Amino acid sequence: MKVITLSVRGMTCHNCVKHVTEALRGVDGVSRVEVDLSAARATVEVGDHVIADALVAALSDEGYESSAA
């Protein structure tokens, strides 16, 4: 297991946190997601085969800009 931290832009409310969390949980290999609205950050525990680009793509599909922090 490894941890990937993402900077997430576009989150404005707790509903956004829910959407970001669900999008990240939908990526195969994700075991834990923690989203911090005030820090605009998501911390994701994933299997060794998961790359940050897969997480960024999942968030992009939901309308959020992100990058590995």
Describe this structure in words.
The protein has helices at residues 14-25, 52-61; strands at residues 2-9, 30-36, 41-46, 65-68. It is of the alpha+beta class and 69 residues long.
Q: Mind summarizing the main beta sheet?
A: 4 strands, antiparallel
- Strands of the widest sheet, in order across it, are 2-3-1-4
* CA(first)-CA(last) distance: 18 Å
Number of strands: 4
CATH topology: Alpha-Beta Plaits
Number of domain units: 1
Q: Into which percent range does the helicity of residues fall?
A: 25-40%
What CATH architecture would you give? 2-Layer Sandwich
List unreliable stretches of 5+ residues: none
Q: How much of the residues is beta strand, in percent?
A: 35-45%
Q: Radius of gyration over alpha carbons?
A: 10 Å
What is the structural class? alpha+beta
Q: What can be said about this structure in brief?
A:
It contains 2 helices and 4 strands.
